[in-house]
Structure formats: structure tokens, C-alpha cells
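Q: Two folds, back to back.
A: First:
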Amino acid sequence: MFLQRIHHIAIICSDYERSKNFYVHVLGLSIIKETFRAERNSFKLDLAVAANYQIELFSFPDPPVRVNNPEAQGLRHLAFAVKDLDACVRHLTQHQVVCEPVRIDTITNKRFTFFSDPDGLPLELYEE
């Protein structure tokens, strides 16, 4: 197969500063590079997820609202692997992020929970 790995995940936000704060200060991702593209009136923020992955956070003037039905076609959610799910949930709760009750994956017997970013994008924490 010619695909080697996922290069990046792109997210368009409605409020750049709010989402930047969420991904950097609440989730703890580190900034690789921040670029303002004047011709598009748009920011592009490259964020590191550990050493192997990258999220690109974009702002655009008046982006359309995302379909929020969890079973809609397209990307369903973005999942992050964590070592201590309980500690992560406590951290998110301290930042006023609401997490769903922790569940058990019936196939792997691993624990997981869902929460949302500031624009309602569903995110998952999956305990390894």
C-alpha cells in the first residue's frame, strides 16, 4: 500500500482565539507554527500531538456550521490515546469541559469517553 501514515488532521473553527486556547491550554498540544494568511483573512495554527501527529487549526470568516448529528456521513470523531483516563477527565472537568460518562469498549475492554471542542466537534479519549 502507498499510504504510510496520517500526516495531519485539519479542523476549521468559528472562534480562533477560543479554539486556540482550548487545543493549546486545555488539551496541552504544542504550537509548531502560527501563520496569518491576509489574502484569506485566515489563521493556520499547526499543533503537535506528541511527536508523530499534527492538527491544523484553521479560522475562516463565517464558516458554515458543522452538521452535529453523531451518525451523519463523514468524519465521526477524533480520538486521542491516553494513559490515565481518570486524570484526563479530571483535568478537562477543571477547565469546564463536560465529558460523557466513561464507557467500556465491548470489543477491546478498554475505557473511553467523549467530549466536544468549542465548536461541538466530537473528541474521544481512549485509554491504552
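A: Second:
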Amino acid sequence: MNKLELMKMANEIRKGAVTAVYHAKSGHPGGSLSAADIYTYLFFEEMNVDTADPKKADRDRFVLSKGHTAPGYYATLANRGFFPVEDLTTLRHVGSYLQGHPDMKHIPGVDMSSGSLGQGISAAVGMAIGAKLSGDDYRVYTLLGDGEIQEGQVWEAAMLAGHRKLDNLVVIVDNNGLQIDGNIADVNSPYPIDKKFDAFNFHVINIDGHNFDEIAAAFKEAKEVKGKPTAIIAKTIKGKDVSFMENEASWHGAAPNEEQYAVAMADLEKVGEALCQM
């Protein structure tokens, strides 16, 4: 995909995430929207995955450590072709395979069940170590929230990753600055995030998480790093492209009502129209 196609796909993924949360009447739109560009680049450009064979042995692995942003993840998997886009409207419904957090047993394309914050990166580190021990060349990617990195388990995993020189591991931090209780700097500041990962022997890259040129360059750079895991610190906007959700902590875990949903979709339609004119 070229950059414009990636931008259009990210907009479709944002629409899918908002639609899923609206139909569920619960869920986490804010962080799904902030991570949409990262999701898009990973699944449409970066990762070796196969919708016809989701469990193929040599596939790259992805772990959504901040599992509550499943709506954005599911919208990405659906648009990538792992399951029908129409199924997004069943999010969190009784009997649906699209649960509130990712479930590797029932959702095609999901490599790890996650949701308990701090644990996903540990699973990703284990996968990366496994690849090293077995001599496989697949790569492992994990997406963390910036509030999530207040969890001690994140740094235990980071210490092991640095110690084991896991250059097949890429940790992405969605740094949108907000968590359920407000500004991360006020709740329990993790800053400076980059210097912390550097101290754990990571190669660190700071980017604008909505700029596909910077995203592409970061993942390219990560592939060239030897003897260290990479941490990509992506500065993002919570609720990106939905006017009333942007930079509002209250939209961390809330569903839009009918009127709000209409406004959100109109906002995203405008973004799509602007992209079509580029």
C-alpha cells in the first residue's frame, strides 16, 4: 500500500472501531482511535501474516498488550480479511466471538489472549525468546498503552528482553497521554519513556504515531537493529479524528449514544472525503 491507501484504511479502521463500540454500548474507543495508524501499518504493510492460514508457523506475531483497545484491533483484522467486517457490530454481544478483550482461541488472527495490563509484553518476550531458541526468523510486535507502562511487570519483561538481546522484538508504546483516570503525567508519570527503555538496553525511536512516513521509517530501522530489542514511542492523539473524543480522557472507556455516533461517523466521513481529494 502507498501512504494515501494506508491513510484511507486507517480511517476505515476508525469507523469500524467506533461502530463496534456503538453497537456494543460499551468498550474503549479513545485508545482504539489513537492506535489506528499503527494497527494499519503493522497488518497491511509490516507483518508477514496470511488470512488464509492465520496460524502458519512462520508468521510474525502480534500481541495487543493494551487489550481493552480490541475494537481497533478487530476492525483491523476484519478489514485485513481475517473475518467479515459485518461481524464488528456483534462486539461484546452474548454468543459473539468478538469479546471485550482479544481471545486467541476463537478469533482468527489473534496470537495471544490479553487484557490484564502489563502481561502482554511478557507473552511477546516469551514468543521472541522461543523464536531465538528454535532458530525461527519470525518477528514479534507488541502494542502497549502509556498508562499500562505504569505496571511493574512491563519493566520486568523489558529487563529480560534487553538482557536476551531480542532483536526480533518490537515494543510500540501508544503515547496518547491519557488513561482512564486522566493525564498520565498526573496519575503516575512514566516520563521520560524513551530514556527508561534505553536504560533497559532497547534501541529507542520516537515518532509521530499518525505520520506514516515516520511509522514506516521506524519499522524499517527496527529491522536493521542487531543485538537489541526496539521500542517505538509513538506520540498520538486519544480519540483521533472524532471531534468530541480527541484528547478527552472520558472517552477512554465509554460508548457513544445514537446522536454522538452520528457525529463521529460524520467526522470520519469528512476525513475520508478529504483523503479522496488528495
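Q: And?
A: The radius of gyration is 17 Å.
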